[in-house]
Structure formats: C-alpha cells, structure tokens
Amino acid sequence: MIEVEQLSKSYGPREAIRNLSFQIEKGEVVGFLGPNGAGKSTTMNILSCIMPASSGSVKICGFDVFEQTLEIRKLIGYLPETPPLYSDMVVSDYLTFAARLRNVPSGKAQSAVEQAVEKCSLQDVSNRIIGRLSKGYQQRVGIAQALVHDPDILILDEPTIGLDPIQIIEIRKLIQDLASSHTIILSSHILPEITQICKRVIIISDGEIAAVDSLESLTTRLHKGERLILKVRQNDSDIIEKLRALNQVNTVVEQETGQFTIDCEPGSNIQETVAKLALDNNWGIVELKQASMTLEDIFLKLTLEEKEVTQ
User: Fold this and answer.
1) Which of 25, 159, 259, 273 has its CA at 20 to 30 Å from residue 84's CA atom?
2) What CATH code is assigned to 2-214?
C-alpha cells in the first residue's frame, strides 16, 4: 500500500532525512518512533503531500506522491502534532467544512460528518464551540477531521500529546477501534502506547532508518541472551560481585535498591542457581523472574547506543 524508496529531504545544508526505505501493507498498524528532531514529522508531511522531498520516491496505492497528490489526498487522513482546528467554530460546522475541503459530495457530507462524530464519540459536543472543549475532545475533533472523508490510511502524529491519563486512555481506545478498518501510521513518544496498538515499528534516528520490524523480531535480534530480575530484602554490598561471579552471567545492574537486572548467555537457564545463591546468603528473595526486552530498551539501544558508536 505504501512504498518508500531512498527518501531524502534537505533544508539548505541540513539533511532532515536520508535515504529512508520501508513498506507498509494494507491493514497494518505501524508505530513510527524516533527522538525529537529525528525526521518523523518531515517524513509524515511528505507522505501527506504537505511538502516535497529532495529525492527518492513514495507510492501510495500505486499513486506517486509527487505527481498524483490529489489522488493521494483522497486516500489519506492526517492529524498533525498540532491539530488544524478553528477554535471559534462549532464542531459540526467545522467537520462539514473539512468534508467540503476533502471533496465529499454535498449530498453525502452530512452523513459523513455524522459517521465521524459517532466514531469519535463527539455526539455530546457536536454543537459546542471547539475552543471551549477540553484538550481531549479537541484531539477527538482533530481525528474526526482526518476521518470525515473515510480514508484508507490514517497518519497520526503524537495524537495523545498533552492529554491527561484518562484522556490518553480514551484516545488510545479510539485508535484501537479505528485500526480494524484503516491502515494506521502512529507516531508517539509514549512507548507503551505503541506496544499496545502496533504490531510493527519503524525506528528512525538522526534522519536514517534504525530498524523496521515487528516488536517480537526486534526483541529476539537485539536481546542476544536471557534476562532475569531479582528483588531481595537485604542489600549487601557484595551481591553484585557474587552474581557476576556466576557462570554465564554477562552483566548485573542494580536498577533500584534491592532490585537487580541480570543479563546472561542465551539458553543459560540459571534461575535455580541464582535462587540457591540468594538463599545461601540469606538475601531474602522477594521476586525472581525472567524478563523480556521492552520497547523502551529497544528504542534506547537503537537510538542512543548506536549513535554513540558513530561519534
């Protein structure tokens, strides 16, 4: 559905993105991750026909993003980081205006607005002025304007930024519901959000692709070993030294008082050995469990550690 090949964008002497290549299939929900300034918004703006690239190619459903922008705009709904809202307009009037901008036929505009209002649960505020709504409802209106022409693809840039925890849960649930009927590209700094919603991630660092894969495959590829979490009541100064002395243990890190992360060789299976060591030394085991690599671990490894290597 989306094919990006060797995409680059320069602002004068500064390269915002360099030679990005990836594909997104119909029906996928893909997380787009990267530190601030990595080039995420630039890439989304190019995919949405808001700005041209310096070089490379993008095809969406077979249409060229540089030569067939009108066809592509019909296929895409875009929510930028700052929603394009008119604060002095009534919600329903604004969505009608958005439908007209998207060339929704006049005879279908009202039903299109009603469907967007229903999908985004805006029925209770459809006759209210946008500027008087809460931040969470304003985000819903922003998503509704991206949906009003029933696009195949939704591009959402930081849809939960600035929301309180309850509003984040509500918007996250809305995106999960939309995922059943749309291809979605979701940019977010809230990594648990990506984990819950997306099956695959594209990680960009310093304007270049750092990884394109499923969360499971990235975990397997990057975490070449076993990881244990040990929590104990005692906090003897020699715990780290004794754990490191065990065969097949690579590193031991005390994450907080009495909690240790133990990275071991692949297939080491040393939980019983660690438990026996803790019992013999009267450390008082609170918890001993196997842990998998989190998306935060993957993100930091790909964006920070690899950047340090190149410097």
Assistant:
1) 25
2) 3.40.50.300
